[in-house]
Write a structure and sequence with these properties.
single chain; six-stranded mixed β-sheet; globular; binds flavin-adenine dinucleotide
């Protein structure tokens, strides 16, 4: 029996989730059951895998087991950008084929999510608002936005330059020098989307929340043990994000990072008038390490996402998150001085995992065991498509996008953990320092 001891903690700090109406989670696993398929993890990857399996095999039984509750996981606590384009800070025109593959994968994922949102009337603020990719300084614009514009031109993707004054009018802050607006990005409340996807699965999917898997036995198919029971299945898909490396495969391939975000209460009518912005927007920074991701939401809240910390134990403390929240408030006040009285609903941390070479953990890792993990920070689309294609692959369905997914490569092995921690901290620290003018 394989012991699984590093488990997600639900600290209930995710403001995207707490601002939603109360939801009753699916019951925890409370008996020993058998299923045709077992999927571990109900984030975008696991939800997409379970949905696609149900579609491919309507007569099979699928058990989806989730440690916490849907909407509190990384899928529910991200910044809510459903990103269609390569999330790049520089471009390499030699690698356009890779960018085309990326676009095909991201667009297929977005289309699948959009179809579910429409078909099941998922109320998640799904808005095709596009996004601004913004530089703070002229030097940042030249170094990062110009090459990105060249790549978009080569890809034949539409974009628009938005200069300082026009940008200030759109965003309500004079902080940025210039931005590239791309229209394809969708903005959502990610917790509402995750919950909605979990609550609209086909009838042949049984979902168990609040049921962390603490042991795996592979002697006869896959048997997952939780505190309340067990699930035995001949086939397994592990979609547990950074926790997946404990399931016996992909060991020593993930760098675990904590990302922090804060969301304000809605602006009052008076504050909206002072702010002077009437359309929601989303902004990603030209430099992902030095800069700040921000949004102004449909329900008139401001999101700040800043600070990337190495968190190999996935145990980022509440005290550290609170300190980052105070920093977020200072950053917000500096950018929106008229909104100094606007408080945060909450600040929270969530975990992502990256591989050394940016490749996902995708495909069959042992007979009848597949993995859909390690989305390298852009998990709304990448997680969704990796779950869908894993299910197709596991059902021997030859989807044309599987080639694109496999072309992303396999994660490379990392050096021993202390070296990874030192190396990752040094790299991130250097990137943040080097790009401090882009904060
Ligand atoms: C603050 C922040 C901002 C981000 N912003 C964006 C963004 O704007 N756009 C974007 O595309 N991406 C963003 N990301 C990244 C994105 O959220 C993740 O890449 C994505 O959610 C990964 O999806 P997933 O399904 O692979 O993992 P998860 O959502 O983490 O799902 C994995 C699930 O596995 C469960 N699990 C783990 N261990 C066990 C176990 N032992 N037993 C049972 N279940 C288990 C977990 O509870 C979890 O629910 C952001 C992340 C953070 C933290």
């Amino acid at each position: 029996m394989l012991n699984i001891s590093r488990l997600p903690r639900n600290d209930q700090t995710n403001a995207w989730n707490t601002i939603l109406p109360k939801r009753t989670p699916h019951a925890a696993l409370a008996q020993d059951i058998n299923a045709d398929w077992l999927v571990v993890g109900a984030g975008y990857a696991g939800l997409a895998a379970a949905r696609q399996l149900a579609h491919n095999r309507p007569n099979d039984s699928i058990a989806l087991v989730e440690a916490g509750v849907c909407g509190e996981n990384a899928s529910g606590r991200n910044s809510g950008f459903v990103i269609d384009l390569p999330h790049t800070t520089s471009s390499n025109l030699d690698q356009l084929e890779g960018s085309h593959r990326y676009l095909r994968l991201a667009r297929a994922a977005t289309a699948a999510l959009e179809k579910n949102v429409r078909d099941f009337d998922i109320q998640c603020d799904w808005s095709r608002d596009g996004k601004y990719h913004a530089a703070v300084t002229p030097a940042g614009s030249r170094a990062m936005l110009d090459p990105y514009a060249a790549e978009l031109t080569a890809l034949g993707e539409p974009f628009e330059w938005v200069e300082k004054d026009a940008l200030a009018a759109k965003l309500g802050t004079t902080h940025f020098h210039r931005a590239l607006f791309t229209p394809g990005c969708v903005l959502v409340n990610p917790a509402a989307l995750t919950r909605g996807l979990a609550d609209t699965l086909h009838e042949n999917v049984s979902i168990f929340e609040n049921s962390p898997v603490t042991g795996m036995d592979y002697s006869n198919g896959a048997r997952a043990t939780t505190q309340g029971g067990s699930i035995t299945a001949p086939r397994l898909i592990v979609a547990a994000n950074g926790f997946s490396d404990q399931f016996g495969y992909g060991k020593n391939t993930f760098v675990h990072l904590a990302l922090c975000a804060s969301l304000t209460r809605p602006l009052t009518k008076e504050e909206q008038t002072l702010f002077g912005v009437d359309q929601p927007w989303g902004l990603t920074p030209a430099n992902g390490f030095g800069g700040i991701t921000m949004r102004y939401t449909n329900d008139r809240r401001i999101l700040i996402r800043q600070d990337i910390k190495v968190a190999m134990g996935q145990d980022f403390s509440a005290l550290k998150t609170q300190a980052i929240g105070r920093n977020h408030k200072a950053l917000m006040d500096a950018r929106f001085p008229t909104l100094k009285g606007v408080t945060f609903e909450n600040s929270w941390a969530g975990y992502i995992c990256m591989s050394r070479n940016g490749a996902p953990m995708f495909g069959e890792v042992s007979p009848n065991i597949w993995m859909a993990a390690c989305q390298n920070g852009i998990g709304v689309t990448k997680g969704t498509i990796s779950g869908m294609l894993t299910a197709d692959k596991a059902c021997n369905i030859d989807h044309p996008l599987i080639d694109d997914m496999e072309a992303l490569g396999k994660p490379l092995q990392l050096p021993p953990r202390p070296l990874v921690e030192i190396g990752a901290r040094a790299n991130i620290g250097w990137e943040v320092w080097k790009n401090r003018a882009e904060a």
